[in-house]
Backbone:
């Protein structure tokens, strides 16, 4: 047993030293696993270098057709949340050039939960709202486990949901704090309406 009393200040200081990534993988390792994942699910991949008209080249471009539906997903791999923020304009440019009929994702290695929560809730959920409004998916990929998880957004192709590490959990991590805030705001709104 510890001789010292519990201190929330010490606890918070310990959390601040948490590394940004839960597992250290290179962008190349994550990209290779995302490509393997798409191929395993049944997608066809187009070489991004063949898309010569693009100012920003995606790291992957995947398509799948089923029963008259065509699914197209493209995206980039980033090393961590800081790199995601620093290069978000590139992803926006990619979307402007390719249009709205394609789904867009940003793939990262597994991010430490502490950093993910800070990222989501920082500045009144600024980055969460920004990514959600432009409809980007965020995928976390662990090449060692050969697993992919989608904590933000959801693909139109429901087949992908069957292959994610946590099925039916898209937006789960991000909606926990955000939906609690939204519920409070709604509760206040309805209370105000009833008082009138």
Residues:
């Amino acid at each position: 047993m510890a001789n010292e009393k519990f201190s929330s200040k010490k606890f918070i200081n310990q959390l601040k030293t948490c590394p940004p990534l839960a597992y250290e993988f290179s962008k190349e390792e994550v990209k290779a696993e995302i490509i393997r994942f798409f191929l395993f699910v049944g997608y066809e991949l187009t070489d991004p270098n063949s898309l010569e008209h693009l100012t920003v080249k995606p790291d992957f471009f995947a398509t799948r057709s089923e029963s008259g539906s065509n699914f197209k997903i493209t995206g980039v791999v980033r090393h961590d949340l800081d790199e995601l923020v620093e290069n978000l304009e590139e992803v926006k440019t990619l979307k402007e050039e390719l249009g709205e009929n394609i789904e867009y994702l940003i793939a990262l290695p597994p991010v430490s939960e502490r950093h993910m929560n800070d990222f989501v809730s920082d500045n009144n959920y600024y980055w969460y709202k920004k990514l959600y409004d432009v409809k980007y998916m965020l995928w976390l990929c662990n090449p060692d486990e050969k697993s992919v998880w989608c904590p933000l957004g959801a693909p139109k192709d429901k087949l992908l949901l069957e292959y994610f590490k946590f099925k039916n959990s898209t937006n789960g991590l991000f909606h926990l704090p955000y939906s609690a805030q939204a519920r409070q705001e709604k509760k206040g709104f309805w209370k105000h309406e009833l008082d009138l």
User: Anything to note?
Assistant: Helices lie at 8-16, 27-41, 81-86, 88-98, 113-133, 158-161, 172-195.
